[in-house]
Design goal:
Layout: H1 2-18, E1 28-29, H2 39-53, H3 57-70, H4 100-114, H5 125-139, E2 148-149, H6 173-181, H7 187-194, E3 201-203, H8 208-211, H9 226-235, E4 245-247, H10 259-265, H11 272-279, H12 284-292, H13 294-308
Antiparallel strand pairs: 1-2, 3-4
Helix pairs in contact: 2-4, 2-5, 3-4, 3-5, 4-5, 7-13, 10-12, 11-12, 12-13
The protein binds protoporphyrin IX containing FE (HEM) and 2-acetamido-2-deoxy-beta-D-glucopyranose (2 copies).
Amino acid sequence: MARSGLVLVVALCLAITVFPDTTTAQLKQKFYGNSCPRVEEIVKNVVKEKVKQTFVTIPATLRLFFHDCFVNGCDASVLIQSTPNNKAEKDHPDNISLAGDGFDVVIKAKKALDAIPSCKNKISCADILTIATRDVVVAAGGPSYEVELGRFDGLVSTAASVNGNLPGPNDKVDKLNALFAKNKLTQADMIALSGAHTLGFAHCSKFASRIFGFNRTHAVDPTLNKAYAKELQMACPKNVDPRIAINMDPNTPRKFDNIYYKNLQQGKGLFTSDQVLFTDGRSKPTVDAWARDSGAFNRAFITAMTKLGRVGVKTRRNGNIRRDCGAFN
Ligand code: HEM
Ligand SMILES: *[C@@H]1O[C@H](CO)[C@@H](O)[C@H](O)[C@H]1NC(C)=O
Ligand SMILES: *[C@@H]1O[C@H](CO)[C@@H](O)[C@H](O)[C@H]1NC(C)=O
């Protein structure tokens, strides 16, 4: 009995050393340094080319990465196409309505990598998306940073798994903090990542309730800048074509910068979830600090993106390397 107990303990210790099973330990910089040392250069070139063709690639890819990581971890589950038997993550109603160019850049980078024998089917789609996301941030003038790699691709993607995991445009600080905390992200991380709204577009329906019939006493959300509210009403009248989308950062929509936080100070946050970061006393000091100091924002953004990239990472035991990023092997 004692002897078999000892054998068991020894076997367990061995198993733990030979198969370390922490979900983050496997991630490291230059993970493909030996197998495919040019991976980052190849992805960067594809991103550059794609961004030249369509600027939308930048916000689309950034948002795609966020949604991938928040739903079932950073495992490229968001890239899976629905089949007759499975409605995939990407087709949930909260899906990435404008993200077509984000999907496309990953597919193109995968193709470029597969053209190199030592890289073919060696790089996970989740890692390609992670690299491409860093590169679009840089392409928009944001800070560069080293990416951690070594993710495996997920084996599951369902529209149902999206429910309750993504923040909504009407969420307030408590709800936002709770959703980010679920992914081991702090309030500071949440505020830094919201800075991604310095880029890209939003459909009118996402903020319509702030500019028309807000509540019984206020037709317009009183935290909105009055002139900005008028502009929004002009751009997004009632019964507007649902395909119309407007810039989230009215000043520098194509630049990754800290103007997002200056906009919040002026009541120019587009969503409730943006503006509450300034009106809530718990998050306001951080907004003020990053409106003043773009270097501090950039550092916080890098920290938060790195942490976001560690969420729910798959190992070779619950993931694989997809041959086609849009379909399971
Ligand atoms: C904090 C909670 C967040 C909420 C409530 C939120 C919500 C939204 C909504 C409703 C849109 C507009 C979608 C549309 O109308 O098609 C949007 C766009 C966008 N979001 Fe967020 N988001 C949040 C956090 C983030 C984070 C963390 C990132 C990335 C790090 C991000 C990146 C983007 C980008 C880049 C766009 C523009 C997409 C495009 O132009 O294609 N968002 N977000
Ligand atoms: C989003 O989901 C809707 C169905 O809810 C679908 O018609 C649409 O094609 C999806 N968009 C993308 C980009 O996959
Ligand atoms: C309408 O919203 C404002 C601002 O949030 C608030 O002060 C006011 O009490 C609200 N009125 C009603 C009737 O809910």
